[in-house]
Design brief:
Elements lengths: L3 H7 L2 H10 L1 E6 L3 H16 L23 E4 L6 H7 L2 H11 L4 E11 L14 E4 L14 E6 L10 E4 L18 H12 L5 E3 L6 E6 L4 E3 L8 E10 L34 E3 L10
Helix pairs in contact: 3-4
The structure holds 2-oxoglutaric acid.
2-oxoglutaric acid binds next to strand 5, strand 9 and strand 10.
Length: 290
């Protein structure tokens, strides 16, 4: 991972303006080749159920089915795997997100490890590996801010052939769109639908990344991804990050994370405990980290 000092030269005021103008920004290579290899090996272990920490079954452990073309999605992979934990909670991601969000404190909302199966040679292309057009905040109405920032770490070169993410440029300016907690895999129908609701121009731009490069997107930017037509799976890890003082907003569709506040949570309670680790500023080491 690059150094924390290097970030000051990379995330300039022009970069911050680009992020707020387009709704996303593509960083240069942040991870070195060894880290990429270790994270790829961590993916293998995750989907095989070989965990570094014991995880109770209520936390929704996902395993891989080699015969399925469906997207594999493990939310909160940082609970299962130490290598992923290091990358997902990296202060480098936290500092960049803080700078882009223009806040002082950053916590993890949740993470994802995604595995998009390869479909080269399939008789017909399945859309089960697609990620439908959505706004992340569409799923997160229980939070009192839309100022979320997500880092997407490419663990191989990633482009349209292996189903990279496509961003809808400037769509974060449309505000919260009804029904944007969408995972309908029929991309064209839903592009028309959301373009109409958004009322802006629907400009799809693929995020082209070399292994180790990272994209950062705003919580309201529409995005999605199509099939992986190559011979190898498309792997990534994602940190969905929030300002450190993000609070629970009662009366809206309830996100499962709200239960992590503990019983009897109250409107306005901050998402501030070990389920939502502090990423920036660098936290004091915990017993688990030592
Ligand atoms: O990896 C993808 O195709 C989609 C990921 C995504 O939805 C996200 O990072 O918020």
């Amino acid at each position: 991972m690059i150094s924390l000092e290097a970030i000051d030269d990379i995330v300039t005021e022009a970069v911050i303006e680009e992020y707020w103008e387009r709704g996303y920004w593509v960083a240069p290579k942040l991870l070195d080749d060894d880290e990429i290899e270790r994270l790829r090996a961590a993916h293998d272990r995750l989907w095989a159920g070989d965990d570094d920490y014991e995880v109770p079954s209520i936390y929704g452990k996902v395993l891989g089915d080699p015969a399925s073309p469906a997207l594999r999605q493990q939310v909160d992979a940082f609970w299962r795997n130490a290598e992923m934990r290091r990358a997902i909670l990296s202060p480098v991601m936290g500092k960049i997100a803080a700078t882009l969000m223009r806040v002082n404190y950053v916590r993890l909302w949740h993470d994802q490890a995604l595995y998009k199966p390869a479909q080269a040679g399939a008789e017909s292309l399945s859309n089960l590996g697609n990620v439908g057009w959505h706004q992340d905040y569409g799923f997160w109405h229980s939070c009192d801010t839309t100022n979320f920032c997500s880092s997407w770490v490419a663990l191989q070169d990633t482009d349209l052939r292996n189903g990279t993410m496509k961003m809808i440029v400037g769509s974060h300016k449309w505000g919260v769109i009804d029904g944007s907690n969408n995972d309908k895999k029929d991309m064209e129908t839903w592009a028309d639908h959301f373009a109409r609701l958004g009322g802006g121009e629907w400009v799809e731009t693929p995020v082209l990344l070399k292994a180790g490069e990272v994209s950062f997107h705003h919580g309201l930017t529409f995005h999605g991804s199509g099939p992986n037509t190559t011979t190898t799976p498309r792997l990534c890890v994602i940190s969905h990050m929030m300002p450190g003082d993000t609070r629970y907003r009662a009366g809206h569709s309830l996100h499962p994370n709200v239960a992590l506040l503990g019983p009897n949570y109250v409107d306005g309670q901050t998402f501030e405990n070990d389920f939502f680790p502090q990423m920036w500023p660098v936290p004091e080491p915990t017993v688990r980290d030592r």
